[in-house]
Specification:
It is built from three helices and four strands. With 95 residues, it is of the alpha+beta class.
Length: 95
């Protein structure tokens, strides 16, 4: 899959060398609404590069109340904590 087949600007902006490193792990998936992509404090197993729709980043506060603290659109990626050297996130992410 050449990078030109992707709509996500993060993937499209990669150098050919960097894209070649990711290419074996890239798979298109269809996700249902409310599908959980990341579980708080659990190892991040996959990063997602949305091509349409949004993902919602949700924080759980003391007492169990939840609050949306961010959104990830077609121009970003989930699991950014991995790039920053972490193996998990304190927040959950849903499609």
């Amino acid at each position: 899959m050449p990078e030109s087949l992707f709509r996500n600007p993060v993937l499209k902006s990669l150098s050919p060398e960097d894209f070649a490193l990711l290419r074996p792990s890239l798979h298109r998936v269809e996700l249902d609404i409310k599908a959980q992509l990341l579980i708080a404090h659990q190892p991040i197993r996959n990063g997602y590069f949305p091509e349409r729709g949004i993902a919602s980043v949700v924080a759980t506060m003391t007492g169990g109340r939840q609050c949306e603290v961010g959104i990830i659109g077609y121009d970003r990626m989930t699991g950014i904590a991995v790039i920053l050297g972490q193996d998990s996130s304190s927040n959950e992410t849903y499609i």
